[in-house]
Amino acid sequence: WGDAPFPWVEPQVERSGHFIRWNLVADIGGCRVEDGRVIQDNENSCGIYLDDYTSNCTIWGNVFLRTGMGVVFHGGKHNVAENNIFVGCRCQLRVSESVSDRSGHEPMIGWNVGNRFCRNICTFDDPEAVISHLSCSRKEKIVHADAFVGQMDENLYHSTSGAYICVIPVTSGETYDEWHKRIPHDEWRQRGFDWNSVIADPLFLDPANDDYRLSADSPALKLGFVPIELSHVGIRAG
């Protein structure tokens, strides 16, 4: 969603109505140019990206396999990512405030608040992978960062490397990289998130063959996770 005519942005425009569900998003790659060569770069590829102030949307019952970032909320408010499965993603959820720097967008500073990430299953092997990444393009916006996520809870996380990390913006540092800090998940919980989330094997039926149905004793079911029916996903005969 983008405002028109560019670059004027009205805070009270209705931004709502998108309901995204029952999708299998797998092996989303990316590329970049380095020294005149196009090389593979999957870290910044995305599963579902709600761009520029997209708000009031629900992402429910999707499976994301091996994408750089699973779900991205880019400047929007009151979006919900719930009951999804993330496998092998570098970042499960990214909430970014990097659009209100544009000319004419000043009224949108602080717009992206109250997003939710609940009852999702997130499994990853990469020790550099992160659960969540809150991002500010300018340090003075950090005051709004805690409000980016209104609720994050009742999720199931499983890292074979044992690393559970979140990225938050901090007031120290002069460059973008310096004012974004990796913190352990326990410190993230101290900020009021994921109190009822669990770290456990979700007990997929056959993950080696990309069968992510849940066994009857999966701990995700105890969190209220609703099994995702993907038997009809893909090209349909006839």
Q: How many β-strands, per DSSP?
A: 21
Largest sheet: 6 strands, parallel
Q: State the end-to-end CA separation.
A: 34 Å
Report the average pLDDT across residues: 90
In DSSP terms, counting alpha (H) and pi (I) runs of 4 or more, how many helices?
2
Rg, Å, rounded: 18 Å
Order of helices and strands: EEEEEEEEEEEEEEEEEEHEEEH
The main sheet orders its strands as 2-7-10-13-16-19
Q: What is the overall shape?
A: globular
Structural class: mainly beta
**Uncertain ranges:** none
The residue fraction in helices comes out at under 10%
Strand content: 35-45%
Describe this structure in words.
It is a single chain. The chain has 238 residues and is mainly beta. It is built from two helices and 21 strands. A six-stranded parallel β-sheet has the order 2-7-10-13-16-19, with no helix packed on it. The longest helix is centred in the C-terminal third of the chain and has 6 residues. The two termini are 34 Å apart. The model has no long low-confidence stretch (mean pLDDT 90).
What are the key terms here?
238 residues; 21 strands; 2 helices; six-stranded mixed β-sheet; six-stranded parallel β-sheet; mainly beta
Short note summarizing the structure:
This protein is mainly beta and 238 residues long. Helix content is 4%, strand content 37%.
What is the topology?
Layout: E1 19-21, E2 24-26, E3 31-34, E4 37-40, E5 46-50, E6 58-60, E7 63-65, E8 69-74, E9 80-82, E10 85-87, E11 91-97, E12 115-118, E13 121-124, E14 130-136, E15 149-153, E16 156-159, E17 165-169, E18 180-184, H1 185-190, E19 198-199, E20 204-206, E21 211-214, H2 219-222
Parallel strand pairs: 1-6, 2-7, 5-8, 6-9, 7-10, 8-11, 9-12, 10-13, 11-14, 12-15, 13-16, 14-17, 16-19
Antiparallel strand pairs: 3-4, 17-18, 20-21
